[in-house]
Design a protein that fits this description.
Layout lengths: L4 H4 L2 H6 L12 H10 L12 H10 L12 H10 L12 H10 L12 H10 L12 H10 L12 H10 L4 H4 L5 H13 L5 H9 L7 H8 L2 H11 L1
Helix pairs in contact: 3-4, 4-5, 5-6, 6-7, 7-8, 8-9, 9-11, 12-14
C-alpha cells in the first residue's frame, strides 16, 4: 500500500533525521532547510536544492558540496571559504574560486590542475611547503619556495644546471641538500657572481659565513671578489 510521504514525514521527523528528505515528494525550501540543519549530507537526496539550504549545508560540512547538483556560485564560494579543499568538487572553477581556495588552505592547490603562476606563488607565500603539491611549478615559484626555505629543494626534481645556480643564488643553504651532486666549482661561480652583482643581502652573507659544509676561505673569497656592499656585510657578520 502506497503512503503519502508528505503526510507521513513531518517537520519534526526531518529535524531528527534529515536523510528522511529522500522520501518526501514535495521538498519545499522550508523542508530542505530543516533536513540540512539536521544532516548536511541530506543534500544528496534533494534534486532542486535552494541556495539558502545549500549554503547552510556547506557551512556546516564543506564536503557536502560533493553531493550538491548544480551548485550556485554563492554555494561554491561559501564552501571554499570554509575549506579550500572543496575546490576538488568544483567543475571548471574560475580563477577567483581557485584563489579563494588557496587563501583558505594553501595545500588546496593539490586539487587545482595546472595552476597559474600567480596561484602557485600565492600558495607558496602562505607556506613554502606548498611547492610539493604543485606538479609542474614555474621557475619563479621554485625560487620563491627556495628563498623561503632551502628544504624546498627536497620537493623538486629534474632541475637543470641553470636552475641549480639560480637556487644557490637565491639561498646558499641549498648547498646542504645538493653538495653530493653539485660540483664545488658551480658554487664558487654562483658566489663570485653574487658578490659582484650588487644583490647581496646581510641574510645571505650570514648564511654563507655560517654554512659549515662549505669548506673554503670565505673571508679571502669575499676580499677577492666582493663589491663594496659584500665587503661591508661580511664585516658586519664576523664582528
Amino acid at each position: 500500500m502506497s503512503l503519502d510521504m508528505n503526510k507521513e514525514i513531518t517537520k519534526e521527523d526531518l529535524s531528527k533525521n534529515g536523510l528522511l528528505i529522500k522520501d518526501v515528494k514535495e521538498k519545499t525550501e522550508e523542508l530542505q532547510i530543516i533536513a540540512v540543519k539536521n544532516n548536511p549530507l541530506s543534500v544528496e537526496y534533494i534534486e532542486n536544492l535552494s541556495e539558502e539550504a545549500g549554503i547552510l549545508a556547506v557551512t556546516a560540512l564543506w564536503n557536502s558540496l560533493k553531493y550538491i547538483k548544480n551548485p550556485t556560485e554563492k554555494i561554491i564560494k561559501r564552501a571554499l571559504e570554509v575549506k579550500g579543499w572543496a575546490i576538488q568538487y568544483v567543475e571548471n572553477p574560475t580563477y577567483e574560486m581557485k584563489l579563494l581556495a588557496i587563501e583558505s588552505d594553501f595545500d588546496s592547490i593539490r586539487y587545482i590542475e595546472n595552476p597559474e603562476e600567480e596561484l602557485q606563488k600565492k600558495a607558496i607565500e602562505k607556506y613554502w611547503g606548498a611547492i610539493k603539491y604543485i606538479k609542474n611549478p614555474t621557475l619563479e615559484s621554485k625560487l620563491l619556495a627556495i628563498t623561503k626555505s632551502e628544504e624546498a629543494i627536497n620537493f623538486m626534481s629534474n632541475y637543470s644546471y641553470d636552475e641549480i645556480k639560480d637556487f644557490l643564488s637565491a639561498n646558499i643553504n641549498v648547498f646542504k641538500y645538493v653538495h653530493d651532486s653539485v660540483d664545488i666549482d658551480i658554487v664558487l661561480e654562483v658566489l663570485k657572481e653574487k658578490f659582484e652583482d650588487g644583490t647581496m643581502t646581510y641574510e645571505y652573507m650570514k648564511s654563507y659565513i655560517d654554512l659549515e659544509m662549505l669548506e673554503m676561505d670565505k673571508l679571502e673569497f669575499v676580499k677577492t671578489y666582493g663589491d663594496r656592499k659584500s665587503k661591508k656585510f661580511i664585516v658586519d657578520c664576523v664582528l
